[in-house]
Amino acid sequence: MGHFTDVIDDLNEPTRSLSKAIPDGWSGFAQLHKAAVADGALPAKTKELMALAIAVVKQCDGCIAYHAKAAARRGATSEEVAEALGVALLMDGGTASVYGPRAWDAYREFADVPTAVKPVAAAS
Q1: Does 120 map to a domain?
Q2: Interval 48-73: pLDDT, tens
């Protein structure tokens, strides 16, 4: 298993336990999550890329793992993930230079993509 798969696995039991302790609150969060990332005016893939960039800015490895996995499952390409992480770097600076590579690594783990990706050309 990879590191971010382990992060998700490590959260399984305490998540179940907490959800049983606060079922109404957890259910409300689960419904919000489902609605927030569903296809709508923005495709679900785009929403997962946004969530991944926000996870970087919030410095949350659990969020990075979950949203990297979801972005990969929704068909996000390595180029799309890289550009989303570039926006996180723009908005957050230094800490995103640490958590952005973590998110990149998580995406590659779940998408099973090679480590080398062709750079995206800058707009003129």
Answers
A1: no
A2: 999 999 999 999 999 999 999 999 99
